[in-house]
Prior knowledge:
Layout: E1 4-9, H1 13-24, E2 29-32, E3 44-47, E4 50-53, E5 60-62, H2 65-72, E6 85-88, E7 91-94, H3 99-106, H4 111-129, H5 137-145, H6 147-162, E8 192-194, H7 200-207, E9 212-214, H8 223-228, E10 230-235, H9 239-242, E11 252-262, E12 272-275, E13 284-287, H10 297-300, E14 304-313, E15 322-323, H11 327-342, E16 346-348, H12 360-368
Parallel strand pairs: 1-2, 1-10, 2-9, 6-12, 10-16
Antiparallel strand pairs: 3-4, 5-8, 6-7, 11-14, 11-15, 12-13, 13-14
Amino acid sequence: MIKYDYVVVGSGLFGATFACMARRQGKKCLVIDKRPHLGGNVYCERKEGINVHKYGAHIFHTSNKQVWDFVNSFTEFNRYTNSPVANYKGELYNLPFNMNTFYQMWHVRTPEEAQAKITEQKVEALQTLEGREPVNLEEQALVLVGKDIYEKLIRGYTEKQWGRSCKELPAFIIRRLPVRLVFDNNYFNDTYQGIPIGGYNKLIDGLLEGIETRINADFFENRTYWESLADRIVFTGQIDEFYDYRFGKLEYRTVRFEEETLDMPNYQGNAVVNYTEREVPYTRIIEHKHFEMFGDAVYQCPKTIISKEYSTEWKDGMEPYYPVNDGKNNALYQKYKELADKEEKVIFGGRLAEYRYYDMHQIVTKNLVFKFD
Length: 373
Ligand SMILES: Cc1cc2nc3c(=O)[nH]c(=O)nc-3n(C[C@H](O)[C@H](O)[C@H](O)COP(=O)(O)OP(=O)(O)OC[C@H]3O[C@@H](n4cnc5c(N)ncnc54)[C@H](O)[C@@H]3O)c2cc1C
């Protein structure tokens, strides 16, 4: 009955890259996914000529040339540069914090003036602490960047993201808040970034070329059958589900997307606008066309599609997006990991099976260096 070297559970970036590398080593894979499409969270839905990032905006970035060349070998990436804008009660600020932001915030024009302003506000925050360490996220942010940036650009956004007050959030969440004393709105520090021209499905199709796939196929609905097909299983789903939640359920944060098609070519002039005040219920609005359409191309496509993002506590039936790596959940994960480490037939990989947030380039790197036997 054994027909494959590997049955890969999950066709997200981990499963697809694993299968691609396995195929190059002469291994035979079957990739299954419970969703009605391949690609996991990088999947794009094409509507009105626009590639909509259905499970949240995805921007590929890396400083690893091998990874960049690898993904570009399947489909060329464009020159998209992530430069989010923050909207605080109608005031607009460039992100990440840089000279443009400081000019908009304080009308300072030189790095020296900006530094003096930041230092003045940091000193104020340190005096309030009277020599003790920051005990929560609010205090931590205040000593890192001062009250103006904290109150307008950090507090409301962070509270919406975590569903809790910054005073109740641990300080370690933001150990660093980089400030740049240059006029540079490029969010990422990496050497390479971009979006696959034609959307992420092209990348996934390239990775999975020549590999057998099945969609609408849940591993747990027919576990014995799928296990019987291969020598090894590569599992990229939820590790607690793999073990039937025997120690309890791991927790996640999730995002609810409210998508709208608008009868106008350009809604907000940028792919990403963060709403940093607490009172607006969503955290960001994504305008998908700006990931792939630049200049006149924006106006050649008469409609636009936006997604409002609402950060939400995860419950059964919702998409598990972000692991909550606090003490309680990490301890629970360790129990599952101990079982996983003893498995001879199963490889656990990706963000759900390893209960860890990974950027896409990290997922690709892991598979490029995987040692096939
Ligand atoms: C909202 C959001 C935004 C992000 N933005 C970025 C970004 O801008 N840049 C960046 O580098 N990274 C980003 N990431 C991270 C990126 O999504 C991940 O690195 C990558 O998608 C992880 O791939 P994966 O294969 O591990 O997981 P997934 O993409 O989740 O794939 C897992 C697959 O397994 C399938 N599966 C699960 N259980 C079963 C089962 N029982 N049977 C069959 N199939 C199953 C699922 O349906 C899914 O398709 C973002 C993540 C999120 C959540």
